[in-house]
Write a structure and sequence with these properties.
alpha/beta; 5-stranded mixed beta sheet; 8 strands
């Protein structure tokens, strides 16, 4: 199987075919295309929140991921007021980083403001030295999921059939 991930949700059929031709899978290889599916906002504990992001909301976005452009685009569909604290991929947030975020957040005069980060980055906010400050901030997490553009059910069936066929040789503990 070949899975092309992070495609635009509205990838035109002709572009999809162009990608298939460029990759040129072998006859025994099937190709699937997926896109990012942004889920509902959660608090740092993983509990769903009812926060609504709209034109009046200022979003402080905290990221340490390789490519934040799709996330920024997603948030800018809801509000143009985005202040991005952008760090390199796998960045270990320091007390200085989080203090800057807290100071910027406090200085913002917007009546409606929130801090959003990714699931990946939220994990790095659990460092002991950061927790006292992190706990004082209204940080929300935006989880992502994956949606198949086409043939998602077919993908699930292939995986399920494979597991059924070979589970006797590879027991799950």
């Amino acid at each position: 199987m070949i899975i092309v991930s992070k495609c635009p949700a509205d990838l035109p059929q002709e572009q999809l075919e162009r990608i298939v031709n460029e990759i040129a899978p072998q006859p025994y290889q099937q190709m699937f295309f997926t896109s990012i599916n942004y889920m509902e906002l959660q608090d740092l504990g993983g509990k769903a929140v009812d926060t609504v992001i709209d034109d009046d909301t200022t979003v402080f976005l905290l990221t340490g991921i390789a490519n934040a452009r799709p996330l920024v685009s997603h948030i800018k569909k809801q509000t143009l007021h985005v202040i991005h604290h952008n760090y390199p991929d796998h960045h270990q947030f320091s007390l200085k980083n989080i203090t800057k975020l807290a100071d910027d957040f406090a200085a913002c005069t917007s009546q409606k403001k929130v801090i959003i980060t990714t699931e990946k980055d939220a994990q790095r906010l659990e460092e002991q030295e950061l927790l006292p400050l992190v706990k004082k901030l209204p940080i929300l997490v935006l989880p992502i999921g994956v949606s198949f553009l086409h043939h998602g059910q077919e993908f699930n069936e292939i995986v399920t059939d494979y597991v059924r066929k070979y589970r006797e040789h590879y027991p799950v503990y």
